[in-house]
């Protein structure tokens, strides 16, 4: 599928929770009875967009829902439960003002990691979905997602070390977005969970908006 076709397929379809834009991945390495992908999931008009790595890392190979099943995925889910965005069952929760997806949506056989070529092949699909959601706050989880978001959607990557302990819960201005990285939950140290919950709650309590293409907070 060409970049133009990807963009044309992205429409603001708000009555679907899973894969609201009808994206179709360009390859399938799963078995006949396995899910092809963990598609984007949640509120297509959300202000908050959480971005993970791939289903093997952050969950969804069985449920088809990002941030389910795995220890890391459920830890992220529970942060947003505490912040009031998530309710309902953990395998298929209800999201309000929140959208979840992955840099690499396709499911892979157990033990396999995406190749660089596969990440590259899916980049235009991820980008099309991110721009269709057009959230104010991007929250990438882990090294891969954070590196991608900082490189592609801010001008800050060259001056920032990819040190997730340092970047965790920081508010970084991007090109039309505010970026708030989240350290991989499997690497959380004492206080990391409380810090990201507090940061999200602080953003919610402020007036966040976009001014001249840059996400800002007032108050």
TrEMBL record:
Residues 9-20 have a biased composition (Polar residues). It holds the Pfam family UDG. Residues 39-165 form the Uracil-DNA glycosylase-like domain. Residues 1-29 are annotated as: Disordered. The keyword Iron applies. Keywords: 4Fe-4S, DNA damage, DNA repair, Hydrolase, Iron, Iron-sulfur, Metal-binding. The keyword Transmembrane does not apply. This is Uracil-DNA glycosylase. It comes from Natrarchaeobius chitinivorans. The lineage of its organism: Archaea, Methanobacteriati, Methanobacteriota, Stenosarchaea group, Halobacteria.
